[in-house]
């Protein structure tokens, strides 16, 4: 598998989730969408709350998923764009300022100002994942999205900085490399998901995207087209399953099955006369339970989760600026009653979103569980579409809003020095 790049213009997204590992192979279509050529999915056993807890199991899951995707796409996979999540991720808004050298903003000025915004103290053991520009100011003029070529003497940049625990990232890289694969880049999972499920209008109007997976709930807030806030909440579908297992005294795998088949997140939507069978532990006989009683077990956990999301949204200071409301994705958003319950808690419009702009296997991937996997492809294709074949090495991608240019660069492991920008290219964040 290792060695050369992937076949022709194929790119591969690898979502190492807590519930499943997914590899998705795709290529760009002329209209800016993605043609999916293959997908492989395998249950994930070696991850907990977004971090690797068992390298061997994770390697096996990746191998299986990648082999399946290779088989379906009919091509060899050599390198992958990988998602990362977990409580070890932190993010902050930062700014930087430089003098414009030639009185007209050049790519080098933009590079310097982003570097200076990036220079904010990063805690020990953290590694920069993304430096995502929000807006620029030139002299007294703020709100500039595309400063290149503009006149002035002083350039200022506001950026969203995302860092991750270096060890956690290294463990993910280790697992991927053990499978004989190169890491093209490591991408924050909610950034990837948001690229798959959000519309341009939502990002402009202001939106809070919430990817509720098995192990973590990942949030990303956008206003005026730029990412403003990211957060990870360590509660998701696994806890819901666990609650069912505990309350109904049934083994976890039965609890999971019951949850997916019958659970409802809003008690009053579930009928009290609709009965289900709950297998017991040991050789005790199965019991009858109403769907409403099951919903009574599930609802408090979803309510807790949405309350935590709402608190985080408030803390971020953007609560009043997300006019497009809440967009939910990830497997745990699929339960009946989720959007109704979320609307009650957020007092905002809520929609459940699936990956957009996909062709080929669209029926399969238009599912909230593939938001991150498909989003990784969007990210990768944006890079390759505009990167003129540039290759990154798990480095930083600076997403430049406005006319939407992406700048990327390599970053040394000790994040002491930055390599120069390798190039500029447009994207459509
Ligand atoms: N129809 C459904 N109703 C309720 N829950 C569901 C449904 N389908 C899947 N889930 C839950 O979604 C979760 C898996 O979601 P997803 O595949 O997005 O997670 P993941 O990406 O593997 O995990 P993470 O992002 O936390 O690392 C599991 O907890 C699963 O039980
Ligand atoms: Mg996920």
Automatic annotation (TrEMBL):
Domain of life: Bacteria
Membrane topology classification: Peripheral membrane protein
Described function: Cell division protein that is involved in the assembly of the Z ring. May serve as a membrane anchor for the Z ring.
SMART domains linked to this entry: FtsA
Protein localization: Cell membrane
Family per similarity comment: Belongs to the FtsA/MreB family.
Residues forming coiled coils: none
Entry protein name: Cell division protein FtsA
Gene3D superfamilies linked: 3.30.1490.110, 3.30.420.40
Main location: membrane
InterPro entries: ATPase_NBD, Cell_div_FtsA, FtsA/MreB, SHS2_FtsA
PANTHER family xrefs: CELL DIVISION PROTEIN FTSA, CELL DIVISION PROTEIN FTSA-RELATED
Gene Ontology biological-process annotations: FtsZ-dependent cytokinesis
GO cellular component: cell division site; cytoplasmic side of plasma membrane
Presence of the UniProt keyword Cell division in the record: yes
Residue span(s) of domain SHS2: 11-197
Keyword tags: Cell cycle, Cell division, Cell membrane, Membrane
Description of how the protein assembles with itself and partners: Self-interacts. Interacts with FtsZ.
Organism (species): Halovibrio variabilis
């Amino acid at each position: 598998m290792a060695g050369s790049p992937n076949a022709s213009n194929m790119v591969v997204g690898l979502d190492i989730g807590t519930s499943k590992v997914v590899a998705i192979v795709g290529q760009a279509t002329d209209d800016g969408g993605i043609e999916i050529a293959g997908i492989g999915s395998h249950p994930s056993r070696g991850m907990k709350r977004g971090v690797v807890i068992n390298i061997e199991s994770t390697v096996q899951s990746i191998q299986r998923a990648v082999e399946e995707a290779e088989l379906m796409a009919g091509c060899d996979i050599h390198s992958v764009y990988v998602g990362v999540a977990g409580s070890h991720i932190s993010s902050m808004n930062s700014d930087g300022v430089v003098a414009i050298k030639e009185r007209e903003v050049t790519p080098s000025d933009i590079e310097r100002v982003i570097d200076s915004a990036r220079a904010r103290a990063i805690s020990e053991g953290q590694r920069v994942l993304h430096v995502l520009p929000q807006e620029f100011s030139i002299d007294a003029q703020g709100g500039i999205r595309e400063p290149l070529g503009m006149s002035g003497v002083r350039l200022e940049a506001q950026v969203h900085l995302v860092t991750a625990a270096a060890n956690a990232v290294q463990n993910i890289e280790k697992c991927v490399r053990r499978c004989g694969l190169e890491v093209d880049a490591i991408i924050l999972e909610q950034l990837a998901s948001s690229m798959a499920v959000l519309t341009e209008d939502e990002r402009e109007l202001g939106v809070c995207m919430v990817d509720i997976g098995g192990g973590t709930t990942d949030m990303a807030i956008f206003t005026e087209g730029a990412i403003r806030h990211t957060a990870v909440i360590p509660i998701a579908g696994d806890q819901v399953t666990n609650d069912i297992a505990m309350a109904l005294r049934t083994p976890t795998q039965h609890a999971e099955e019951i949850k997916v088949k019958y659970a409802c997140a809003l008690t009053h939507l579930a009928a009290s006369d609709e009965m289900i069978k709950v297998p017991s532990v040991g050789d005790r006989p199965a019991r009858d339970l109403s769907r409403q009683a099951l919903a009574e077990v599930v609802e408090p956990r979803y309510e807790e989760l949405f309350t935590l999301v709402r608190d985080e949204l408030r803390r971020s200071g953007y609560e009043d600026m997300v006019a497009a409301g809440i967009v939910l994705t990830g497997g745990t958003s699929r339960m009946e009653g989720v959007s109704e319950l979320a609307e009650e808690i957020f007092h905002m419009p809520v929609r459940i979103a699936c990956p957009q702009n996909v062709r080929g296997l669209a029926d399969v991937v238009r599912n909230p569980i593939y938001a991150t996997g498909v989003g990784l492809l969007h990210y990768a294709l944006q890079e390759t579409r505009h990167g003129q074949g540039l290759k990154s090495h798990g480095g930083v991608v600076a997403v430049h809003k406005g006319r939407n240019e992406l700048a990327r660069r390599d970053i040394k492991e000790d994040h002491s020095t930055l390599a120069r920008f390798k190039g500029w290219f447009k994207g459509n964040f």
